């Protein structure tokens, strides 16, 4: 029914022990529960950081306007469409992104809304989405074709491409395996296809389309047997393609790992959590084992004892990758030493930071690796059961982990007696119902217990008293994904990477105003500049201004401090924090006050509402920031912001509130001049709608495209004359500027 | 048995005790709104924060276990600043008035809604006791008061203000005409002696309140009668002499000595008494001396008897403070939250308490039957806070000097819930501390109360929007007494 009718809730209370107070409290806490029917179509507009800097607010307004959705509601009066705001889909390289039930759409603009809705209707008419993981891979003789199938890739039509490739391989009756692999990390080039022919260098094609499938196959393979070759030739005659033309066009898409941009993107990276990226079929158990999967677990169960497992992780210097950087070995030791023989390990896959999608990618691409990591953790602390906590917004991650758990269980890698070692451990998956605060471990545990996701004061720490009062270890996805490598390659090899206090690698999702966005894994200690300029290829247009590290808990580090190394302590000393690994590059068109406002809007929305500082303090900061962005700031606002930020950080109960002021603190510290400019009624970046106005320059040819697109009718129809914008009617939606072929619209 | 130090003072506490428990054991008061003994800590108000072992973070003392060797700071300046900010954040989002508008404008600070509730419930004897504790001669003022309260009354925006003066008169007359008129009790004798110069409304008012405080009082009056301007400023018809005599007579009944035809020398009085109140225009001034207090005409001559009596009352309070050794400052006005202008829908919310009130009586002074007076009381909107004297938010706001306006934002709409026969719920006053939710759960209420929503918009409500009476079948008395503010209160004194 896609909503919770009151009658149903009452019935639940009648037939279970759940009280009306509990069910009301829980049902109104999480974003995924609603009390009103949905429209026939559902659109979800992503408001992640990358989408925000690429205009998701204007996009949302355009969609709401187009569909006639009244202010303050999410469904149009006829019930045709429900349009929801979503914190982040983790498709940051495609920003801004909208998802329907059947498809995901990226790189949208307010001007493209009409077309978007047509596509949505078409996708809906086409029936349910195709299954993500329908086909199993098989062995290969003639070669192999690999297609990246992370969520981002699927957005760009990779599923159709995969089907096309498989169809062509079948038609030509080739002994070629068409394999889906996990995330190909270089999201900016997707969809990527790699063709492997034994004895030849791998061929890569990037930015291909579904229609290129046949040509890609034929570029490298010939049909088997004379008869079949003839038949294929005949069918090709019927095809509306000229062979020469098609081959050359597809060859233009060929790239290879030696291409300078690919080399640069990969050069600084070290793949540990993302080992075998672009090569491993996420759900191919045999391939996983061939490539070293479960080796670590096998060895540990055969030789190690739990204490030495913890010592190994201690030697590796591994710290939690979820944000805080707590030493993993210390956490495990506390749990191991805690009283009680029923202990639980939890994989925290509630990646809620807007602008971050590392955990999603790891869960989707390396499900067995995370299961192995969780099992290692369980063995180390003596846990019997484990839980994957995965947010509802990540359906593919959920599906793959579920399939991987079944496969591992079937082969004896999970269950009562793993690999005949006498060690028993099994796992289940729980979906997060949509609350950022549940990434905080005590809130996560509260939600697992069926309560509102409200953090509680630590101590007691979950390692002593967690789920149902039992010792509980909560580890982040990436932390767990690093473990198998550490045990296969040794703690010293891991510790050799990185800095004195931050060892190993960190996965970042690099997005925003950067030429090559994607999923990167870099050794700790690499500088921000190296990440942005060398791996990311710099800022495409405009000037590199800052990076936002760590999402709503992190901060904005200015370009002047770009030589700061990626290291837990170094980032904290600059007022940011590692967070879970979102890295959004900002350029001169990004307003730093608006960034602070954006993040406070997020945390304010996501605060559980328990403690005064977070519940009201973040709201007060947001009030002030909104006022400043509207040009109505007061002179004492900056001091008040600082006082609120300081006290909210010191006094909040949990990590969310403690870190929530960081975006304010860092922007005030590094970009105070922009705040002061706003107090004088000016937005230097030309971003804050109420402080800017749109004007047509002399470059205008009078082509009327802007007139036709303006949703506010603010540009009179004056063909072949320089257009004029009525600033009274203009809503600063930016459509005119984005459609103008002459670049003749300027923002003042 | 962990041993720890709070503000440098060592204390040993039982295993399992919190830092808040330890502080209480030392007699150090840490403010707390959301803590309820016997309930698991809710750690929501964060007003009880302290610093432990020099950390950057502050922690709620109510949930922090006392540990061996812990060094706690509960009085550092930034700890106090954080507490003040927590209070100010709560106040910025707080919707309600500590005092009704009528009381705020009353120079004598009479709790008028309390009086109307008592009259309405027929409890005139308590009404008299409360009235005479605040107003020295209500039978007089019930006739001649300027009654700014009637203009201040929120009903005056829609209809006519309540006829408060006539209500006061009715209560006072009812008492005076009774067989045993009420004489308020004086506190135990302090052994201190106060001279009052002038037996007009200000001087007599000062005498009245000083006697209630237990000080010995001698009143010196230049003429041969007490009452001053009250004797001739009003028509005999409006204020008959026998009413005036009976009302003013209470001063002597309380034990004050009155010397008529006396014009004493100020220096001699200062010499002979512990304090002197000058409540008459006297030659030579001299009110700047220690122990000498001015009231009434000695401050600013006024024809308004209420202002004069209020001036005497203030002087008495100052003298009382002075004699207790606290200095000669005038007592500070207590913290008071104010909503300001209300819109029409908010007025309608207020008016829900008076659904079938009769037509307004009008403000003209006259004697009226109990039924008419009770009918007029039924028009009262009770815009005061029932918990004004017990509210912890108000008390701590006072103690910490918290500003109610620092974080004032565009306010929500004032609403009140009267679904329960005994309880009034005003959500704007709720600080989302969670105590009532915990209490109803613990008492196994079938519906109980719950948090609804998340973040800034979280509110406490009844599941499935059921009426409050179904939520509080057993727990009403406990949630009302446990509520740290006036969000949940009894509609009238139980």
Number of helices of chain B: 19
* Radius of gyration of chain A (Å): 27 Å
Low-pLDDT windows of residues of chain B = none
Main sheet attributes: strand count, strand direction, barrel closure of chain B: 5 strands, mixed
Average pLDDT for all residues of chain A: 86
Task: List segments of chain A where confidence is low: pLDDT < 50 over at least 5 consecutive residues.
Answer: 128-140, 234-248
Report the span from N to C terminus of chain A. 48 Å
The strand count of chain A comes to 20
Separate helix tally of chain A? 31
Sequence of strands across the biggest β-sheet of chain B: 2-1-5-3-4
- The helix/strand class of chain B is alpha/beta
User: So what's the overall shape of chain A?
Assistant: globular
For CATH, the homologous superfamily of the largest domain in chain A is named as NADH-ubiquinone oxidoreductase 51kDa subunit
Please tally the β strands of chain B and state the result.
Answer: 14
> Biggest chain pair contact, residues each?
A-B, 42 and 51 residues
In brief:
In chain A, 40% of the residues lie in helices and 13% in strands.
Please tell me about this protein's structure.
The complex is a heterodimer of chains A (748) and B (494). With 748 residues, chain A is an alpha/beta fold. Chain A has 6 domains: 38-126, Glutaredoxin (3-Layer(aba) Sandwich); 135-262, Glutaredoxin (3-Layer(aba) Sandwich), CATH 3.40.30; 285-495, NADH-ubiquinone oxidoreductase 51kDa subunit (Rossmann fold, 3-Layer(aba) Sandwich), CATH 3.40.50; 505-590, Ubiquitin-like (UB roll); 593-678, de novo design (two linked rop proteins); 693-748, Alpha-Beta Plaits (2-Layer Sandwich). Chain A contains 31 helices and 20 strands. In chain A, the strands form 5 sheets. In chain A, strands 6-5-7-8-9 form a 5-stranded mixed sheet, covered by helices on one side. In chain A, helix 16 (358-365) packs parallel to helix 18 (395-410). The longest helix of chain A has 18 residues, at 612-629. The model of chain A is unreliable at 128-140 and 234-248 (pLDDT under 50). With 494 residues, chain B is an alpha/beta fold. Chain B is 34% helix and 11% strand. Chain B is built from 19 helices and 14 strands. Chain B has helices at residues 19-26, 77-92, 101-105, 112-120, 124-134, 138-144, 148-152, 164-176, 201-212, 241-248, 250-253, 266-272, 305-323, 344-350, 370-377, 392-400, 435-442, 468-471, 476-482, and strands at residues 3-6, 9-12, 49-52, 58-60, 71-73, 193-197, 216-221, 257-260, 275-278, 292-294, 423-425, 450-452, 459-461, 488-490. In chain B, helix 2 (77-92) packs across helix 16 (392-400) and helix 4 packs across helix 8. The longest helix of chain B is centred in the middle third of the chain and has 19 residues, at 305-323. The two termini of chain B are 43 Å apart. At the A-B interface, helix 1, helix 2, helix 24, helix 25 and helix 26 of A face strand 4, helix 2, helix 17 and strand 12 of B.
């Amino acid at each position: 029914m896609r909503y919770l009718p009151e009658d149903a809730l009452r019935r639940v209370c009648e037939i279970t022990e759940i009280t009306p107070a509990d069910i009301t409290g829980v049902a109104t806490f999480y974003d995924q529960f609603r009390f009103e029917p949905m429209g026939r179509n559902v659109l979800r507009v992503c408001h992640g950081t990358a989408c925000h800097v690429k205009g998701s607010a204007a996009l949302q307004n355009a969609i709401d306007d187009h569909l006639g959705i009244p202010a303050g509601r999410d469904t149009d009066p006829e019930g045709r469409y429900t349009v929801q705001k979503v914190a982040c889909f983790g498709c940051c390289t495609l920003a801004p992104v909208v998802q329907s039930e059947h498809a995901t759409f990226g790189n949208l603009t307010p001007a493209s809304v009409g077309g978007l809705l047509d596509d949505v209707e078409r996708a809906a008419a086409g029936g349910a989405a195709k299954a993500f993981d329908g086909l199993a891979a098989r062995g290969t003789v003639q070669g192999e074709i690999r297609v990246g199938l992370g969520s981002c890739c699927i957005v760009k039509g990779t599923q159709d491409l995969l089907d096309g490739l498989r169809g062509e391989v079948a038609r030509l009756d080739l002994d070629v395996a068409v394999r889906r692999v996990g995330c190909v990390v270089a999201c900016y080039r997707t969809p990527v296809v790699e063709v492997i022919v034994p004895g030849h260098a791998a061929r890569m094609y990037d930015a291909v389309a579904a229609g290129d499938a046949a040509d890609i196959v034929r570029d490298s393979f010939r049909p088997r047997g004379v008869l079949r070759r003839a038949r294929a030739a005949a069918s090709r005659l019927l095809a509306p393609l000229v062979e020469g033309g098609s081959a050359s066009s597809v060859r233009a898409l060929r790239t290879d790992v030696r291409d300078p941009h690919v080399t640069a993107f990969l050069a600084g990276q070290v793949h540990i959590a993302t080992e075998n990226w672009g090569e491993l079929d996420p759900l191919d158990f045999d391939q996983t084992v061939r490539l070293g999967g479960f080796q670590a677990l096998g060895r540990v169960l055969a030789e190690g004892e739990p204490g030495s497992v913890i010592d190994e992780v201690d030697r590796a210097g591994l710290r939690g990758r979820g944000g805080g950087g707590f030493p993993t070995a210390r956490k495990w030791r506390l749990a191991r030493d805690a009283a009680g023989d029923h202990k639980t390990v939890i994989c925290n896959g509630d990646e809620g930071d807007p602008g971050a999608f590392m955990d999603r990618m790891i869960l989707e691409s390396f499900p067995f690796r995370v299961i192995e990591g969780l099992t290692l953790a369980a063995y180390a602390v003596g846990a019997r059961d484990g839980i994957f906590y995965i947010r509802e917004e990540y359906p593919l991650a959920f599906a793959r982990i579920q399939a991987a758990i079944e496969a591992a269980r079937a082969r004896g890698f999970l269950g009562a007696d793993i690999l005949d070692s006498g060690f028993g451990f099994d796992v289940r998956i729980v979906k997060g119902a949509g609350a950022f605060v549940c990434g905080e471990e005590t809130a996560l545990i509260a939600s697992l217990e069926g309560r509102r996701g409200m953090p509680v004061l630590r101590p007691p720490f979950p390692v002593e008293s967690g789920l149902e009062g039992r010792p509980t270890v909560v580890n982040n996805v990436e932390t767990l994904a690093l473990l198998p490598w550490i045990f296969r390659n040794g703690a010293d090899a891991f510790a050799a990477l990185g800095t004195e206090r931050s060892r190993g690698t960190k996965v970042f999702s690099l997005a925003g105003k950067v030429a090559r966005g994607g999923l990167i894994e870099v050794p700790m200690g690499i500088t921000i500049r190296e990440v942005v300029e060398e791996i990311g290829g710099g800022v495409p247009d405009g000037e590199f201004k800052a990076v936002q590290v760590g999402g709503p808990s992190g901060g904005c580090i200015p370009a002047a401090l770009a030589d700061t190394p990626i290291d837990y302590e170094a980032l904290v000393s600059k007022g940011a924090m590692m967070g879970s690994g979102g890295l959004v590059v900002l350029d001169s068109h990004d307003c730093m006050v608006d960034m602070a406002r954006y993040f406070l809007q997020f945390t304010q929305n996501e605060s559980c509402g328990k403690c005064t500082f977070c519940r009201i303090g973040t709201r007060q900061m947001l009030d002030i920031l909104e006022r400043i962005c509207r040009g109505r700031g007061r002179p004492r606002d900056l001091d008040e912001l600082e006082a609120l930020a300081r006290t909210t950080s010191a006094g909040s109960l949990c990590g969310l509130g403690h870190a929530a002021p960081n975006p304010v603190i860092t922007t005030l510290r590094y970009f105070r001049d922009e705040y002061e400019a706003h107090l004088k009624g000016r937005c230097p970046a030309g971003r804050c709608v109420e402080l800017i106005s749109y004007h047509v320059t002399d470059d205008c040819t009078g082509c009327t495209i802007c007139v036709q697109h303006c949703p506010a009718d603010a540009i009179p129809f004056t063909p072949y004359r320089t257009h004029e914008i009525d600033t009274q009617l203009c809503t600063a939606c930016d459509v005119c500027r984005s459609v103008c072929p002459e670049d003749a619209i300027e923002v003042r | 048995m962990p041993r720890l130090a709070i503000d440098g003072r060592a204390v040993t506490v039982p295993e399992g005790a919190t830092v808040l428990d330890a502080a209480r054991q030392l007699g150090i008061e840490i403010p707390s709104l959301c803590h309820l003994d016997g309930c698991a800590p809710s750690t929501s108000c964060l007003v009880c924060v302290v610093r432990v072992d020099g950390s950057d973070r502050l922690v709620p003392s109510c949930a922090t276990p006392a540990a061996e060797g812990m060094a706690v700071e509960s009085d550092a300046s930034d700890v106090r600043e954080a507490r003040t900010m927590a209070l100010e954040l709560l106040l910025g989002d707080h919707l309600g008035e500590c005092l009704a508008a009528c009381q705020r404008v009353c120079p004598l600070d009479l709790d008028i809604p309390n009086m109307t509730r008592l009259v309405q419930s027929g409890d005139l004897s308590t009404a008299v006791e409360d009235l005479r504790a605040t107003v020295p001669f209500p039978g007089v003022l019930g006739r001649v008061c300027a009654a700014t309260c009637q203009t201040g009354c929120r009903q005056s925006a829609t209809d006519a203000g309540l006829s408060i003066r006539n209500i006061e008169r009715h209560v006072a007359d009812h008492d005076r005409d009774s067989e045993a008129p009420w004489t308020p009790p004086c506190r135990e004798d302090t052994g201190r002696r106060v001279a009052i110069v002038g037996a007009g409304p200000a001087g007599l008012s000062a005498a009245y309140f000083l006697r209630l405080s237990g000080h010995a009082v001698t009143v010196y009056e230049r003429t041969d009668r007490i009452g001053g301007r009250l004797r001739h400023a009003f028509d005999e018809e409006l204020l008959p002499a026998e009413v005036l005599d009976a009302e003013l007579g209470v001063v002597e009944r309380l034990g004050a000595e009155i010397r008529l035809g006396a014009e004493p020398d100020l220096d001699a009085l200062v010499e002979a008494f512990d304090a002197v109140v000058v409540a008459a225009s006297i030659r030579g001034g001299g009110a700047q001396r220690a122990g000498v207090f001015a009231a009434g005409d000695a401050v600013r001559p006024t024809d308004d008897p209420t202002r004069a009596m209020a001036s005497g009352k203030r002087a008495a309070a100052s003298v009382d403070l002075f004699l207790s050794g606290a200095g000669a400052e005038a007592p500070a006005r207590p913290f008071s939250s104010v909503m300001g202008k209300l819109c029409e829908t908010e007025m309608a919310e207020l008016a829900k308490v008076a659904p079938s009130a009769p037509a307004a009586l009008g403000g003209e002074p006259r004697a009226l039957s109990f039924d008419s007076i009770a009918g007029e009381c039924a028009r009262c909107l009770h815009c005061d806070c029932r918990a004004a004297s017990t509210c912890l938010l108000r008390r701590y706001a006072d103690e910490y000097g918290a500003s109610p306006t620092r974080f004032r934002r565009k306010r929500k709409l004032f609403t009140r819930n009267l679904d329960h026969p005994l309880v009034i719920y005003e959500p704007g006053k709720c600080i989302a501390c969670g105590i009532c939710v915990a209490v109803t759960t613990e008492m196994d209420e079938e519906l109980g109360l719950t948090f609804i929503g998340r973040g800034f918009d979280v509110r406490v409500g009844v599941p499935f929007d059921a009426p409050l009476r179904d939520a509080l079948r057993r727990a009403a008395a406990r949630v009302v007494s446990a509520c740290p503010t006036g969000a949940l209160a009894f509609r009238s004194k139980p």
